[in-house]
Amino acid sequence: MEVNKICGIKSTTLSVELTNLQLGNDTLILTDANVVTIVGAGCGDIDMLTIKAARAIAAAEAIVYDNLVSKDILQLANDNCEMHYMGKVFGQLCVTQDQINQQLLRLSQQGKVVIRLKGGDPNVFGRGTEEAYFLANHGVKSQFIAGVTAALGCAASAGIPLTHRKLARSVTLMTGHLCDDAPIEWAGLLAAKSTMVFYMGKQRAANIAHGLLQAGAKLALPVAFISNGARPNQSVIHTTVKDMVEVASGIQVEGPTLLIVGEVVAIGQELAQLLRDVDEQQGDATYHINVANERVYA
């Protein structure tokens, strides 16, 4: 089966072909009712989904999914698959992790081929291992399928390198949810010139800015907010540590927002400008890094 036939198509035939598609050295068992497969759906639309994840979705008899999984990915499930939405949204009353765990256990005990489908990667702030522990403690095996995590997918889609030989030799991934009550070595991160990526960072922008400034960060340190990254409605806003709190308060989007802090953000801006210059020179405005909704706050 050709890979490009996966995108944008939903049919029983597709599900069968995906299930039967054999890749070398594949040790995962996708149709074992005794194993719950915890799958990363990637950080955007179906183009960010791995073939292995698509195969697992097509083979599933029951899928427990969160709010970050796009609709076109869900459409890869076969018509008889049970779909169980158990998403969490910041600041809203949602299902608990225990309820999710119990649902996975209950479906597995019913003898179904169960997929736990999560946006991004299940083990990068996805609590995939917590669910695997719970299942193992109740006699149920599990396996993981990696997904393209938001830090990688969103940064690439926005044209921002996470590392750069002269500016950033490391990258640190953090969850914004803990920035108000967990100790973070801000000074160490700045000294190491590590690119900092905050998942759900918009809601904790004030805490992040305070920590950075207290540790001696420059007011002009570049910052990028990427909302709905790697999706058609992606929005990229460039600013600095000095203005990031004000900018964050003005972002009115329903989808997730990733925050990137570091000199690499400026490199991304320079690259975007060079590409625009190439377009103008060639009289062609059709090729751009996906920053059509880009805004810059100086």
Automatic annotation (TrEMBL):
Entry GO MF terms: uroporphyrin-III C-methyltransferase activity
A matching Pfam family: TP_methylase
Gene3D superfamilies: Cobalt-precorrin-4 Transmethylase, Domain 1 (3.40.1010.10), Methyltransferase, Cobalt-precorrin-4 Transmethylase, Domain 2 (3.30.950.10)
Biological process annotations from GO: methylation
Name of the top EC class for this enzyme: transferase
InterPro entries the UniProt entry points to: 4pyrrol_Mease, 4pyrrol_Methylase_sf, 4pyrrole_Mease_sub1, 4pyrrole_Mease_sub2, CobA/CysG_C, Siro_Cobalamin_biosynth
Record keywords, A-Z: Methyltransferase, Porphyrin biosynthesis, S-adenosyl-L-methionine, Transferase
Enzyme Commission number(s) from the entry: 2.1.1.107
All residue ranges annotated as the Tetrapyrrole methylase domain in the record: 36-244
Keyword Transferase recorded: yes
Name this protein carries in UniProt: uroporphyrinogen-III C-methyltransferase
